[in-house]
Amino acid sequence: MLAGILAVAAAVVVAPTAVAKPRGSEPVYDFAQAVRETAWVDIGLDGDGDGRSDRVAADIIRPKEPAAQGKKVPVIMDASPYYSCCGRGNESELKTYDPAGRPVGFPLYYDNFFVPRGYAVVLVDLAGTNKSRGCTDIGGASDIGSARKVVDWLNGRANGYTTATGSAKKNPSWSTGAVGMIGKSYDGTIANGVAATGVDGLKTIVPIGAISSWYDYYRSDGASLRQGSPAGLAQTVSQRNGGQNCGAANRKLTEGATSNGDYNSFWLDRDHVQSASKVKASVLASHGLGDLNVKTINFGQWWDALKVERKLWLTQAGHVDPFDYRRSAWVDTLHKWFDHYLLGIDNGIEKTPSASVERAPDVWADQAAWPAGSAVTLRPASGTTPGVGTLGTAAGTGTASFTDSSGQTSTGWAARPTETANGRVLFSTGALAKDLHVSGTANVTVTATPSTASARLSAILVDYGPATIRNYTGSKEGIKNETTQSCWGSSSSGNDACYLNTSVDAVSVGLNVISRGWADLANHRSLSQETPLTPGQPYTMTFRLASTDHVVPQGHQLALIIGGTDASFISGPAQYPKITVDLAKTSLALPVAGGGPVSTPAALPSAPVQLAPVTTSGLERG
């Protein structure tokens, strides 16, 4: 009988217990007990000329339990010049420290949310700012080296110390070496720049409203943008540094950023697009289509140059963090993104749609790809009103003229589309018979004859028709602060996880400028060398418009405006000219999905409502 029982038991096969795939990291670690410390990492430069290699301060917060258990953790890093001068996030948070100098307050919610889930968060002061030595160089070797060397240190390839000047070394034995960089504006720009070095250990970056080329922050195809100067920005961010003298470093910035708008070695050293082929990290990018600070050309050209796994969020807002325009969805996406690329969790985030675009306030559409289409060529033609014509596929004939002068703006040019205007010419498609999806980076080719030896050109694309959009020229660029808060992670004394909720700031308009571009006609041959213009001689120049993704609805009209100096954005020439445009040799390369515009003749609105005029004050900000 016993033999029979054993035989039956032997015949029974017990199926292995199914192991569920991990859904995501969970908040299992005690945030209040987290390790808070600072490492000073040697970056191998002497930017302040004090005879010592500069060290940058990396403030660290990490869960205590993994190290005690012999486990290592990955790192989320935000390298910034703004931790003591200007603050981070919608509430302008600064770093804070206890009387012994130990970090207490870590700006933003990254530490509150991710440290309990098994990540370290490292906030790096760029050289020349806050507790770091050296001097900032606005996107140059010192800025990029400040963050890259911390990545190296986390991977055992650079030296870190317990103090700013001492010899006692600090070893990141708790680090897996896997790093994800994140940040908005300047911070995201540093993430782009570090990724463009190809540094090992950097697994992913999350640039938000970030610069990809500092030339395209301060210049536009030869024209000088009204964005301040690199030296001015350096002085701002170094106001509360350790007392080091950065006068010599700032003079180099002034000498390198020549006022004539030429692209030179200074800008090449700060052009991360040129090194995009070195990027190995995945990229989750976010940008505001209404961002008039970091122009959208910065995400468009960066995206086009990347050859890695990447995803893109585009909002109607301006220079705004996704945490403040789509909070819950963003935190969920960011959680899955870091879990996948830093912890190796198979959660499928890499298989989600390539782009998510805000079509109307809080109305989002996913796209399989960005750009969503390819370019069609549209050409301007004269109409019955001087300076007002049509935009279609047939080549135009004749000429159209305008006179440049100081004080003109794109806001004024767009205001009365049916009238002749001194400073611009305007060409419209007519009423669209179906939606027109503009997606990508357009460029315009203009053949222009100036009456003086210097000339600026501006081009804008306008969607004429009624719409409700985010008020991206408003005080908070499309959002409003509420009086309530929501909390995202754990809090501790001096380190709150709760932030003001926000809502949409919307406005009803009759026109919307969807893309802008500017150029110096003297750079028609080369961005690296301007050529003096001969009055009365025609010159042909192709220049880029800002990258966009916008659906011009059926019944609306798309217009191309060509003007002189758009004073809201660029500096004027030495002598303002009359400019004559050769319509047969002028065209717009427009990236569209599903074919070009199908339209019928229709009158433009005489004075459509538009957003408040753009102001240049305060554009240089984080």
Q: How far apart are the first and last residues' alpha carbons, in Å?
A: 82 Å
In terms of DSSP E residues, the strand content is: 25-35%
- Residue share in helix: 10-25%
| Broad shape | globular
Average pLDDT works out at: 94
Number of helical elements: 12
Summarize it.
The chain is α+β, with helices and mostly antiparallel strands and 622 residues long. It is 16% helix and 32% strand.
Provide structural commentary.
- The protein has 622 residues and is α+β, with helices and mostly antiparallel strands.
- Strands 16, 17, 18, 19, 21, 22, 23, 26, 27, 28, 29, 30 and 31 form a 13-stranded mixed sheet that branches. It has an 11-stranded mixed sheet with strand order 7-1-2-6-3-8-9-12-13-14-15, with helices on both faces. It has a two-stranded antiparallel ribbon with strand order 4-5.
- Helix 4 (141-154) crosses helix 5 (186-195) and helix 7 (230-237) packs antiparallel against helix 8 (247-256).
- The termini are far apart.
